[in-house]
Amino acid sequence: MNREELIAQIFEKKSFLCVGLDPDISKIPSFLLEFEDPVFEFNKRIIDATKEYCVAYKPNIAFYECLGPKGWISLKKTIDYIPKKMFLIADAKRGDIGNTSLKYAETFFKTYDFDAITVAPYMGEDSVSPFLTISKKWVIVLGLTSNSGSSSFQQLTLESGKKLFEDVLEKTATWGDHSNMMFVVGATNENQFSLIRKKIPKHFLLVPGVGAQEGDLHKVIQGGIIKDVGLLINSSRGIIYASNDKFFEERASEEAKKLKDQMSLYM
Amino acid sequence: MNREELIAQIFEKKSFLCVGLDPDISKIPSFLLEFEDPVFEFNKRIIDATKEYCVAYKPNIAFYECLGPKGWISLKKTIDYIPKKMFLIADAKRGDIGNTSLKYAETFFKTYDFDAITVAPYMGEDSVSPFLTISKKWVIVLGLTSNSGSSSFQQLTLESGKKLFEDVLEKTATWGDHSNMMFVVGATNENQFSLIRKKIPKHFLLVPGVGAQEGDLHKVIQGGIIKDVGLLINSSRGIIYASNDKFFEERASEEAKKLKDQMSLYM
Description:
Chain A has helices at 3-13, 38-50, 62-65, 69-81, 98-111, 125-128, 164-173, 193-199, 217-224, 237-240, 248-264, and strands at 17-21, 56-59, 87-94, 116-119, 138-144, 181-185, 204-207, 231-235. With 267 residues, the first copy, chain A, is α/β, with parallel strands linked by helices.
């Protein structure tokens, strides 16, 4: 999906919500365990319950990978079930030397037809650029993450006076452009969005950390929104585990609608 | 496998060679494509040809993942075929927020019975520590990698005067200890090994970049070896693609023996 198509969908739905599909077998409603593929059954119902309110889905690959080959089959069925107009993000946080990153790009952009993949920047330019070679596909580089560990390295001050994450945003942005690159900026860093917008005024930001991680949605939007919106705000656990009983679909739907309604206020 | 068992095996074999299993379907001998599982057939023959000369195998997960579910089946068969005394490394470069890293740990330490996994440090302490909770299992943190992109961020100078990779080595080392943590230091940084040894005198270093990437084996050993050896030196392409004709096993065996013989000189 290209930038224009993504933006058009956002304005049409008045939503920039991304729903994270992190199906944990120990957390999904127990009656689903009787199905042949509980992970897919869960995802299917979550998708049906939320598709009206979101523009993107983000399967977190760890939750599929840990199930062995059958997890990848559940992932493929999930991808095939998601409506074609949705922006599809592999939350995989990959990154390796060039020939290996190229294999990861092949995995997520060809073997599985994702629009985008999250990538860790530590290994530098030749670990990120192989993901940028396929048209209409996106790299989403970790900038400033939502977890407490972001203070370990991302927030270190460099000799230049900049923080490491600022250097990551600025330097990495030159390897692609705002038509094939986004950045992860966690909602828990709500006060940094204005600063970040000065450095990367046009790039989309993928924002996790609303919901279970308690980032402030309105502060994030006020600091991060641009003319083209430029935000995809993700909620995973806050939606998909809003309840784990037979009403989980209704509860997921309500939580997604609540977030969507708050987003609509800005459009 | 614990540290004592690894060291004992190294001294017994007079080798600290790790063979990288990166089976690329476009590079393996074409006659193997006629088998039902060419990837496993290739790995099996490489393992038979090299097991006398190495103490560890390192499948690079990208090369399996890109084949879809059947790639993970080939990986499992490969793991099961590798002799039990070998140290088994998942070159996966994972790392995410705590609950997700825990899933990745489950994948590689339980679903697949690896001894160790490579992890990217950018997301900080709570992204690395979930991998340290399982006894006899190891985290191998990216320190200073072998690719040109290591200059993008790893070699940046911090306000403190240290390079980022030095801070990563020092800080990360405090999250575990030398019985459950190793570091990746690329052989192409051959002049940095003495400096790195001052910072982490006891940790094992996993060293890629000998062979196809042209790091200097002897300089690496001289700068990095300690009483307990403390090195696992990896070669992937230099061994497994030494030839791609019907003599590939003999050529792989020769290349592995050549490296092992050079290592033996130091023991």
